[in-house]
Amino acid sequence: MIKRFDMPYMADWFAISLRWVLLIGFVVALGLGGRLDLQSSWPLGFMIAWNLFMAILASMNTRMTYHRRISLVVDFILAAMFYWAQGGLLGPVFWAGLLPILAGAVYYEFWGALIPAALFSMFMLYLEREIGMETSFSLLLIGVMLVLGSIFGYLGSRMMAHMRKNRALWVDAEEKKRAVQSERMRAIYELTSTLSSTLSYKRVLDSALDMSATALNPNPEEQGSDPLVGAVMLFNGGKLRIGSARRFTNADMRVTFDGAEGILKHTLDEGEPLTFKDIGYDPELGRVIALRSCTSGYCFPLRSGFNVYGVLLFAHPESEYFSSERVKLLDIIGRQAVIAIQNARLYQDLVEEKERMIEVHEEARKKLARDLHDGPTQSVAAISMRLSITRRMMTKDVNAANEELVRLEELAHRTTKEIRHMLFTLRPLILESQGLAAAVQAMADKMMETFSQKVAVEVDERATEQLEMGKQGFIFYIIEEAVNNARKHAAAEVIAVRLKQIEMGVILLEINDNGAGFDVQAMTENYDKRANSSLGMVNLRERSELVNGLLQIDSKVGKGTQVRVYIPLTEEAADRLHHARRR
Question: Do residues 257 and 332 both lie within one domain?
Answer without folding.
Answer: yes
